[in-house]
Amino acid sequence: MIKDVTEMKKEFNITGVCVPEINYMVDISDKITGIEEMVDKGYCFVISKPRQYGKTTILNELSKKLNSRYVVLFVSFEAVSNKIFENEENFSLGILKLLTDNLRMTPQKDVYEILSRHQEGVKDFDGLSITISEFIDEIKKEVVLIIDEIDKNGNNGVFLKFLSLLRRKYLSKQMGKDITFKSVILAGVYDIKNLSTTIKEEEEEIRFNSPFNIAMDFDIDISFSDKDIETMLSQYVNEEKLTLNVEEMSRKLYEITSGYPYLVSKMAYIMDKKLQKKWDIEGLQEAIDIIISEKNPLFDYIIGIIERNSEIRNILKEIFVDGGIENFTPYVYEKAIIHGILVERDGKLVIHNKIFEGIIFNFLMDRERAQSE
Question: 27-216: what fold?
Fold first, then answer.
């Protein structure tokens, strides 16, 4: 017998998407409402944030909200084969299959059948464009397209040409000359500008002309404030029947993590599980020590970037000496900022949070020690 999720004991989640029914979660309803308003206005935008920053959880909860008013096509490139990005035909057929498979898992069986029928015979972007228009016209509903993990592909050139197609259709729709998506939401570590710099030099038209300059700025902060963290800990304390100064502990967690979503959940998970609910100052320090001493995919990824980039290593050394960099130009430090290693705070460029500080400091010291031996 399969256990109902409502009967399962909640836990802090440190892997994959957070689900409110089974995970202790920050209340992200205000963030979702802000994004929903952008969709209602018909905006296209890119959520460009570092790894494990809660993007997929945000998109998952957003799609649930939007489903009552729109047909939502939500796909991810995370586990997609590079073959789909080899050429227009592969991409056109591949993206339609992804979208159709997405609809198969929803109650909208009629919409699923319509899209399944329309995808037959598509061989290029012209055919894909026609299919999108005919599908939306037939279902007589507004459609929102969400693509997660946009930078997890082997050929950005093909994907950027697809974005050019979406841009052309969006502009034509505004002039009453085409039918297309109500809103397009893209999410990944890189924004479109950074994706453009990675494609082949011979495709200069795409390299130097933004294929998605219809995108509105995304200014909604999806990191966690101390007040956000309070909402998660309050739920935890109530369900676990604990006595805890939630306000103070939330503030401490924020000071340590600077609101980096994964690190907030990771600290809470360690204090709850590994330290047997040791919610005090000593427990906080023990949790920090555990995190800094362990290996995990996020830390390996960050260390890998630092290892391969001497400029970032030099910047980090300067920050450790001077406490931050003032009067900086974001373009110079762009890669470290994109990956969440560095952040602007109070007019200075600093390491994002205290946990990253500890991990990076240990790595740099070990690296210098190894080179001197």
Answer: Rossmann fold (3.40.50)
